[in-house]
Amino acid sequence: MNSNRVKEHVKSLIYNNKSLYSLYDKGFSYGCSDFSKLKDKFKGERAFIVGNGPSLNKHDLSLLKNEYSFAVNGIFYKTESEGFRPTFYVVEDRHVMLDNVDKINTFEAQYKFFPIDYKNQVKNKKNCWFFRMDKGYYNKTSPYFAIPRFSTDMNDKLYCGQSVTMINLQIAYYLGFSEIYLIGMDHSYQIPSDADVAGEEITSNSDDPNHFHPDYFGKGKKWHDPHLDRVERTYSYFKLVYESQERQVYNATVGGSLEVFDRADYYSLFK
């Protein structure tokens, strides 16, 4: 039986046996961190979740020096150019991990969060925490494909939701933050005409027009179709979760197209 037939056989087993979905979607659990000591550690505080859209260049990140902040993926370009360093650093996407493994390993933050799937790639484990990541959102054979879910318990799992921001929002909730401000969330993408597109996977052949730095997903780097309609649907669900517990998420992005959350003026937050 060749490899393709094996894969199809496994998919068939999973599709026809719903009890296997949970095992397939949830991923690894062995070696995950114990997050108990972080539960509500920052209860009642506010935090900024930093997106990586072009609008991030319109924000003075030095204002976040005395704030709690989450940042992701290629934020190290901002660290190199401006010295900005977040409190919390998060990676979800495997392409980001594999294409930037050296920079990710040398990047310093008080807290670094990764799916347990990447534990072997993380050589410098100082300040690193590893969580179980449920990938059902991305699995087309899963009954939870493209369906938003929210975890309130990091010791159980965190759910994917089309954007690493969703992982950040679940972590922030578990840590106890009650007021979240999103910045750098442009909520718009273009696929360059010279990019190589193979299904959901895109390979860049030129500078990245969708992020604050041209090398973010620059030439030779791989990324996924962002599916902004799914992102917006998940945002809407997460907004309801936060509000049901009298917590709030605001969009403090300068410009951009994200209108799910109430707007806040970034610069007025520091007056």
General description of the model:
The protein has 271 residues and is of the alpha/beta class. It has one domain. 26% of the residues lie in helices and 17% in strands. The chain is built from seven helices and 13 strands. The protein has helices at residues 3-16, 19-26, 76-82, 94-99, 101-106, 164-175, 228-244; strands at residues 46-50, 68-72, 88-90, 111-115, 128-131, 133-134, 158-159, 179-183, 196-198, 201-203, 222-224, 248-251, 262-263. The strands form three sheets. Strands 5-4-3-2-1-8-12-13 form an eight-stranded parallel sheet, covered by helices on one side. Strands 9-10-11 form a three-stranded antiparallel sheet. A hairpin with a 2-residue loop joins strand 9 (196-198) and strand 10. The longest helix has 17 residues, at 228-244. The model has no long low-confidence stretch (mean pLDDT 91). It comes from Shewanella frigidimarina (strain NCIMB 400). This is 6-hydroxymethylpterin diphosphokinase MptE-like domain-containing protein. Pfam families: MptE-like (PF01973). Residues 33-190 form the 6-hydroxymethylpterin diphosphokinase MptE-like domain. InterPro entries: MptE-like (IPR002826).
